[in-house]
């Protein structure tokens, strides 16, 4: 990046009607304000921007917001656009101008980034009070200051971020924080070219790769302690990972990298299943008899706990703990940083193993004239650009190393499981959390437990859907996918009994204007929650049990 980074920011009425664009060209700040109802302020900005041929200009959260306005305006004026990285990188072909999303580089909100890099933070502005500029009166000056600060602060953040990466790793920010982490790893710690991609065996590696554990064990509890494992995945970077060429070997439970196996998990012995399994499209940890592919770390742990294992096929590769030094450096950087910067480093470290596991099948954006039969999924209001599947099965990416991702996930699940078995009286878990009546040892290091909260009463409806009353008597609601709906403690009790409950919005926030535009009156906002009819465990009245396979 240059010494100063060009940035822009779009402000809109009710998030849908643009009224202003701020633009910092790297030297000077420019502002474009809507002056009448029929004035296209985005086009005014673009016409001015056209003299900066070849420029890259950044907006925070551009893929989900700013770039959609840019795409709509360019399409409306018959300008050709391409998408090097989806809506996160929009290229205006005529002038070779790229509109980039800085959120993809940093992974955190701008306010937190300002705190992390100690630059002047965002100013406050109530978006639900935004009106057309000619109606703002004296507040127009305050609005302009807010817009300018966003642009200048983002530029300062990106300059500081680039310097930090250069000083520590000798790299500059790539298109995403994950790709930047991989490039840093490649340059300073271990060359990617020395890691086998295992292309011929990728099907088996993907079959051995599973997500984190998310299970309800008891649906209601009292006096619970909530714990998280500190930096769960990064704490597993000390494990040896497969880096050599895969090869078939004779079955041996004490060796190997991954294997296909038949297992018998005795339902009488296991309340918490030790092995992940995909059943009816869902990830579960069942008991009974089943067959699948697993990382050998997971198979060995299951056998140690009492699972009967018969290996039918096995693959092996040379292994080394090549991520260990990277994890130690990121941990040291995090510890020496302020709390906001620590969150960025945490994400930087986490995304490394995730990038290694990237799939070769993704999406791409096509112009309507290039669509094939059956491809129709418009992403712009004029239905000119469409997002379609892009199969890159033969794409030789230097950073797709799925065996590394497989191993880190497996080690994380094993360590998480063993922590829960130590806790014994467990009610709920989610990837790196343990909710129990027990008291567990905590510590400051990656892999140690941290104490999160205390619950006088807790109601676990389903994975990622629960509520609890804390020690202050406040009901805390954790409802992924339903966070804008307020449930009472009485509602949670009714759902546990299998009843459907009508609820109202807890908060409207930025969706208020969207709903208003759809003709929805606030008093009409109702939602009926129906208890889930499927889970990764068998739901009982209070206690659940693992799915039994035969």
What distinguishing features does this structure have?
550 residues; Nucleotidyltransferase, domain 5; 3 domains; 7-stranded antiparallel β-sheet; 5-stranded mixed β-sheet; 14 helices; 31 strands; 28% strand
Q: Helix tally?
A: 14
Question: What percent of residues are in strands?
Answer: 25-35%
Q: What summary fits the major beta sheet?
A: 7 strands, antiparallel
**Structural class of the secondary elements?**
alpha+beta
Give the count of structural domains.
3
Strands of the largest sheet, in order across it? Answer: 9-21-22-10-23-24-25
User: Whole-number radius of gyration?
Assistant: 26 Å
Shape: globular
**Could you report the average pLDDT, rounded to the nearest whole number?**
90
How far apart, in Å, are the first and last alpha carbons? 58 Å
The total beta strand count reads: 31
Poorly predicted segments: 507-524
Kindly state the percentage of residues in helix. Answer: 25-40%
Question: Could you explain the architecture of this structure?
Answer:
- The model is unreliable at 507-524 (pLDDT under 50).
- This protein has a seven-stranded antiparallel beta sheet with strand order 9-21-22-10-23-24-25. A five-stranded mixed beta sheet has the order 12-17-13-16-31.
- The chain has three domains: 7-175, Nucleotidyltransferase, domain 5 (2-Layer Sandwich); 190-358 and 397-461, no CATH class; 464-534, no CATH class.
- It contains 14 helices and 31 strands.
- It is α+β, with helices and mostly antiparallel strands.
């Amino acid at each position: 990046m240059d010494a100063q980074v060009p940035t822009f920011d779009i402000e809109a009425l009710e998030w849908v009607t643009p009224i202003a664009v701020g633009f910092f060209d790297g030297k000077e700040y420019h502002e474009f304000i809507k002056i009448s109802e029929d004035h296209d302020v985005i086009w005014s900005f673009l016409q001015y921007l056209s003299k900066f041929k070849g420029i890259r200009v950044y907006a925070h959260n551009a893929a989900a917001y700013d770039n959609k306005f840019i795409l709509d305006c360019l399409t409306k004026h018959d300008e050709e656009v391409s998408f090097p990285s989806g809506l996160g990188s929009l290229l205006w072909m005529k002038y070779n101008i790229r509109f980039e999303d800085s959120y993809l580089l940093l992974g955190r909100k701008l306010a937190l980034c300002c705190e992390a890099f100690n630059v002047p933070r965002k100013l406050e502005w109530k978006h639900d009070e935004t009106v057309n500029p000619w109606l703002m009166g004296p507040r127009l000056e305050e609005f302009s200051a807010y817009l300018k600060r966003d642009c200048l602060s983002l530029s300062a953040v990106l300059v500081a971020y680039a310097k930090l990466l250069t000083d520590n790793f000798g790299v500059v920010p790539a298109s995403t924080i994950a790709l930047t982490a991989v490039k840093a790893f490649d340059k300073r710690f271990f060359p990617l070219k020395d890691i086998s991609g295992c292309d011929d065996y990728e099907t088996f590696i993907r079959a051995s790769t599973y997500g984190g554990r998310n299970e309800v064990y008891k649906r209601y509890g009292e006096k619970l302690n909530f714990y998280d494992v500190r930096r769960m995945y990064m704490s597993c970077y000390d494990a040896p990972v497969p880096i050599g060429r895969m090869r078939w070997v004779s079955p041996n439970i004490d060796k190997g990298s991954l294997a296909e196996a038949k297992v018998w998990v005795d339902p009488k012995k296991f309340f918490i299943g030790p092995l992940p399994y995909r059943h009816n499209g869902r990830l579960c940890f069942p008991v009974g008899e089943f067959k699948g592919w697993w990382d050998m770390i997971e198979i060995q742990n299951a056998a140690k706990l009492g699972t009967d294992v018969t290996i039918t096929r096995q693959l092996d590769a040379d292994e080394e703990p090549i991520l260990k030094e990277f994890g130690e450096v990121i941990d040291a950087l995090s510890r020496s940083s302020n709390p906001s910067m620590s969150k960025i480093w945490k994400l930087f470290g986490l995304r490394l193993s995730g990038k290694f596991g990237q799939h070769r099948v993704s999406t791409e954006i096509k112009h309507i004239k290039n669509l094939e039969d059956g491809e129709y999924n418009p992403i712009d209001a004029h239905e000119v650009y469409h997002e379609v599947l892009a199969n890159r099965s033969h794409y030789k990416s230097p950073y797709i190393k799925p065996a590394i991702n497989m191993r880190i996930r497996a080690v994380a699940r094993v360590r998480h499981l063993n922590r829960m078995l130590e806790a014994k009286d467990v009610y709920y878990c989610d990837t790196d959390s343990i909710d129990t009546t027990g008291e567990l040892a905590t510590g400051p290091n990656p892999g140690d437990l941290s104490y999160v909260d205390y619950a006088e009463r807790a109601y676990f409806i389903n994975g990622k859907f629960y509520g609890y009353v804390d020690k202050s008597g406040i009901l805390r609601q954790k409802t992924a996918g339903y966070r804008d709906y307020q449930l009472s403690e009485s509602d949670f009790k009714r759902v546990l009994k299998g009843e459907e409950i009508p609820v109202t919005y807890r908060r409207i926030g930025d969706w208020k204007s969207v709903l208003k535009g759809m003709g929805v009156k606030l008093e009409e906002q109702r939602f009926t929650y129906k208890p889930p009819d499927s889970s990764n465990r068998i739901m009982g009245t209070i206690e659940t049990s693992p799915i039994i396979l035969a």
